[in-house]
TrEMBL record:
Major localisation: membrane
Family as reported in the entry's similarity comment: Belongs to the TMEM8 family.
GO terms for cellular component: plasma membrane
Protein's UniProt name: TMM8B protein
Lineage: Eukaryota, Metazoa, Chordata, Craniata, Vertebrata
Organism: Promerops cafer (Cape sugarbird)
Membrane topology: Multi-pass membrane protein
Transmembrane segments: 516-536, 548-567, 573-597, 609-628, 634-655, 671-692, 698-717
Subcellular location: Cell membrane
UniProt xrefs under PANTHER family: FIVE-SPAN TRANSMEMBRANE PROTEIN M83, TRANSMEMBRANE PROTEIN 8B
Highest taxon of source: Eukaryota
Alphabetical UniProt keywords: Cell membrane, Membrane, Transmembrane, Transmembrane helix
The EGF-like domain, residue ranges: 499-510
Length: 764
């Protein structure tokens, strides 16, 4: 055949340590139909400070692959919520081969067409809280590239039509495909009139959706006559691929005929006619060429989930033959993103008769619905059982409905299908099922009632069970509970939702409490972070006693907003917010920086030098507000104003030292008992804040930070300025020779200036 190669690539993204699914990087690819091989080239490289990170440590990178929907991963081995089905995926760990770069390759032979998702993350770290901009962090960038090779001009088989083929000696195989429409109960592929040097040295393989593999359903035509391969309950609205290949060592020409028969569910004894008036009458694409393998232009358009369908029959495998039951559609009601309810006509209470199953279809839109959670709930009305021991079984399958007629074993699986089993009875009348990140397309729910006897389950007689059925799509499982937050995430044009847990809770729905914080621990951490701000009371008293009223006001502002910010910032349920979180955070950060600013400016004692030192206070408040609005977590928001204030203080102290010809402050007691201890306490607080604080020790390390910073202010704040010792006013210098006479009584408004005697105050 003729191969066509396509290339796809994605922009490199920075990987993060895994904490929850919200911290992973998700990549979306689309594999076209008729693809025989897909190769992912996984490129990873390090960066540090805009250059190659040769000095960065090697950290393993885990990549997950899944077709149809994002992977449901659990690298921390946490517990999933009850009644949650976990779809499988494939994981690959990348190791470093070069100091700053590594490449991994992942091959998939005959991949399923459609959407493929890659998820990548770094291993979980210790949760260190680092100050932004303190040092250049190591960044690990990940870039996947996809190369696909697909066949064109694959021969198309028409049901009931015979295709002749002669396989030359240099050819090893022939590939065909046939489109299976909806409501097909059986696909039968047969090889006829096979002639070769050694009888019929052929293998016959069949696979749905993609070309067959070595482990696909196969049949050796040398050992089976006639050479027929059947597929019961095939996937609807999909291509089935037929591969005819020679046995190893066969060199001659082999000629044969291939035919396909599709059994219609509504007519199980008859195959679909080979020729129909139009392709629409058999749900086949309009782009079919002539029989026998002419070029096929476009892939068959799948039926839109929004299309209105009439009740149609489905197959039921039974020992007595095949029967058909109607499929009831559901009405899709979109409330919000990943918030969709599926309503049943004449529901939500449905009747399950004893002689036949009740089947419903739930259609999930491609791409749009795969990022949420599919929820299914069955509730049995016990009063409808009339005292019988009835059990209602439900099978949820993707792509085709499945209802077994075997009463001895109730299962939702076959050789090619795997589904989910639900059951309700008088003892357990409620059953739930949650499927995170479900595959899109049609999901079929088949309900069947059976009565329990001594010999197993048997069909009930004259008992129609009533079941309340609820199906809906939600962003997260139970909205992540009280210890989690459901986040709506986006990667390019794909939306998905995930839980971000707090207070030590983990798991897909934040239900794993193995490392959860107890209520007492949450209360203790909240009280420590809030009450540690009481340490600002002594600095406030010292400032008031020393007549530093502006500084005292700033300390009170800081103490108030720091207390209520930490009361609102708690991850658990011990939370108290008096304002919006963003307002409290801004005021807390502003108060902290302003406390540093006004303390250092007060230490500079600028009043004798600069008559209006309050200008610096106002300027600092405006500049700090602007800086916090730009970036609240930046290093220079704290370091810049502090260094600038320290520079002003150093210039003022140096000027006094030069003018007085003596070190300032002049007394050694001031240095030994106030300045040095205060500077050491402040330095210890900064070191704890920058290098020791982690997520686990945050509540007590940050409380110590509050105590140390407030204590250092009490040491560093200068004493009260001594009053001037001048006995009287300094002698005034004579002016330019004129005098200004002011009538004191007139200025006070006591007498009429027209009649009062002039008692003037003359000044130069």
């Amino acid at each position: 055949g003729l191969f066509v190669t396509d290339y796809f690539t994605r922009t490199p993204r920075k990987l993060s340590p895994f904490r929850s699914f919200a911290s992973i990087e998700l990549f979306h690819f689309h594999i076209p139909e008729d693809t025989v091989i897909a190769v992912w080239n996984l490129i990873t490289f390090k960066e540090q400070g805009g250059t190659f990170g040769d000095q960065c440590p090697d950290r393993s990178i885990t990549v997950y692959f899944r077709s149809g929907a994002p992977s449901v991963i659990n690298p921390l081995h946490t517990h999933f919520p009850r009644d949650t089905a976990v779809p499988g995926s494939f994981a690959l760990t990348l190791t470093w081969t070069l100091p700053n770069r590594t490449t991994g390759v992942f091959n998939v032979t005959s991949p399923l067409p459609g959407d493929w998702f890659l998820a990548a993350h770094l291993p979980k770290d210790e949760g260190k809280i680092s100050v932004k901009g303190l040092y250049e962090e190591c960044q690990y960038l990940f870039q996947p590239q996809l190369i696909v090779q697909r066949l064109v001009n694959i021969a198309v088989l028409y049901p009931g039509h015979v295709t002749e083929q002669s396989m030359a000696p240099h050819n090893r195989s022939c590939l065909y495909k046939v489109f299976v429409p909806s409501y097909t109960s059986r696909v039968l592929v047969e090889v006829l009139r096979c002639r070769g040097a050694e009888g019929c040295p052929l293998w016959l393989r069949v696979r749905a959706k993609a070309p067959p593999l070595h482990n696909s359903t196969a049949l050796d035509c040398r050992e089976h006559t006639p050479c027929q391969l059947a597929q019961d309950l095939p996937f609807w609205q999909h291509w089935y691929y037929v591969l005819v290949e020679k046995h190893p060592g066969v060199l001659g020409t082999v000629s044969f005929q291939v035919t396909v028969q599709l059994t219609d569910c509504s007519r199980p004894s008859l195959a679909r006619p080979p020729f129909l008036p139009s392709s629409a009458s058999m749900n086949m694409p309009h782009s079919f060429g002539s029989a026998g393998g002419l070029a096929l232009g476009d892939s068959p358009p799948p039926t839109s989930p929004n299309d209105t369908k009439h009740p149609v029959p489905i197959p039921v495998t039974a020992h007595t033959g095949e029967r058909c039951w109607p499929v009831r559609p559901t009405l899709r009601n979109e409330l919000d993103t990943f918030s969709v309810h599926f309503y049943i006509f004449f529901g939500p209470n449905v009747s399950v008769p004893p002689d036949r199953p009740a089947v419903f279809v739930i259609n999930l839109l491609p791409v749009l619905d795969s990022g949420g959670v599919l929820n299914l709930e069955l509730r049995l009305n016990v009063s409808s059982l009339c005292g019988e021991n009835v059990t209602v079984f439900g099978c949820l399958n993707h792509g085709v409905p499945l209802t077994s007629g075997d009463n001895t074993s109730v299962t939702c699986e076959t050789e090619s299908l795997a589904g989910f089993l639900l059951s309700v009875n008088a003892t357990a009348s409620l059953s739930r099922l949650r499927i995170p990140y479900p595959q899109t397309g049609s999901w079929y729910l088949s309900l069947r009632s059976l009565c329990a006897t001594e010999h197993g389950f048997e069909p009930c007689t004259n008992v129609t069970a009533e079941v309340y059925l609820r199906a809906y799509l939600s962003p997260c499982i139970n909205d992540c509970g009280i210890y989690g937050q459901c986040k709506l995430l986006r990667t390019n044009n794909y939306l998905y939702a995930a839980c971000e847990c707090k207070a030590g809770w983990n798991g897909w729905g934040c239900t794993d409490n193995a490392e959860a914080f107890s209520y007492g621990f949450q209360l203790l951490s909240t009280l420590l972070l809030c009450l540690s701000n009481v340490m600002f009371v002594p600095p406030v008293a010292i400032a008031v006693r020393s007549h530093y009223l502006l500084e005292a006001a700033v300390y009170i502002f800081t103490m108030f907003f720091s207390t209520f910010y930490h009361a609102c910032d708690q991850p658990g349920i011990v939370v108290f917010c008096i304002m919006e979180y963003d307002v409290l955070q801004f005021c807390d950060f502003l108060g902290s920086l302003m406390s540093v600013w006004v303390t250092v400016i007060a230490m500079a004692r600028l009043q004798p030098i600069v008559k209006q030192a309050s200008v610096l206070y106002l300027l600092g408040a405006m500049l700090l507000s602007m800086a916090l609005q730009m970036d609240r977590h930046g290093l220079w928001n704290l370091l810049g104003p502090s260094l600038f204030a320290l520079g002003i203080m150093a210039v003022a102290w140096t000027a006094r030292t030069i003018r007085r010809r003596h070190c300032y402050p002049p007394t050694w007691k001031r240095w030994a008992f106030y300045l040095c201890p205060g500077a050491l306490i402040a330095a210890a607080a900064v070191l704890l804040y920058a290098f020791v604080e982690t997520e686990e020790n945050y509540f007590y390390i940050h409380s110590i930070w509050h105590l140390l910073i407030a204590g250092s202010v009490g040491f560093l704040l200068p004493p009260r300025a001594k009053p001037s010792r001048r006995l009287g006013p300094l002698p005034r210098r004579k002016g330019c020779g004129y005098q200004l006479c002011v009538n004191e009584q007139e200025e006070l408004g006591l007498v009429d200036p027209a009649v009062a005697s002039i008692n003037s105050i003359c000044t130069s």
